[in-house]
Amino acid sequence: MDVDTVRLGLGAFAVSPGFGGLGALAAAVVAYLGIRHKADQDRLAAREANTAEQATQRLADERERWWELARWVDQQVVDQQVAAARRPRRRAAHRPRGGRPRPPAEEDGVLAALLDTLRAMKGSAHTEEQQAMLAAVTSKIIQAGSETRE
């Protein structure tokens, strides 16, 4: 096989329908690979966006739960204050039914538990509003504790 025969064969192939078909096949493969790459990128971007959206939703849910707990603690303090105000003042010699004296300021245990709850919440108070809420409720608890001892 000499060079002229190869050149004539390639020249004839270059102008044949087979060469056009081979070119179309190559173009289709390149287009497929490009589309597949773009689809992979879109899928990855959608997954990242979904992950970011889930993280944002999780953070919003966490903040809402924080505020629900803060409002609950605040309401418990108010309930303790109302209960203490309705309770008759104890005299030193007063003994409830059963003959045993009531433990001193049972409200103190509830208020201490509420303070413990606020201490636990402090680590997740990230905004100024949350920190202000903690300070306000803590002040209420301290005030309620001093009122129950009077």
Search tags:
81% helix, mainly alpha, 150 residues, single chain, rod-shaped
Rg to the nearest angstrom? 39 Å
Give the domain tally: 1
The total of helices stands at 4
Task: Report low-confidence residues grouped into runs of 5 or more.
Answer: none
Structural class: mainly alpha
If you average the pLDDT, what whole number results? 83
User: What can be said about the biggest beta sheet?
Assistant: none
Along the chain, the helix and strand elements come as HHHH
Binned, the helix content reads: over 70%
**Number of E-state strands:** 0
Describe the structure.
The model has no long low-confidence stretch (mean pLDDT 83). α3 (106-122) packs antiparallel against α4 (128-149). 81% of the residues lie in helices and 0% in strands. It is built from 4 helices and no strands. It has one domain. The chain is an all-alpha fold. The chain is rod-shaped. The chain has helices at 3-14, 17-86, 106-122, 128-149.
Summarize this, please?
With 150 residues, the protein is mainly alpha-helical.
Topology of helices and strands:
Layout: H1 3-14, H2 17-86, H3 106-122, H4 128-149
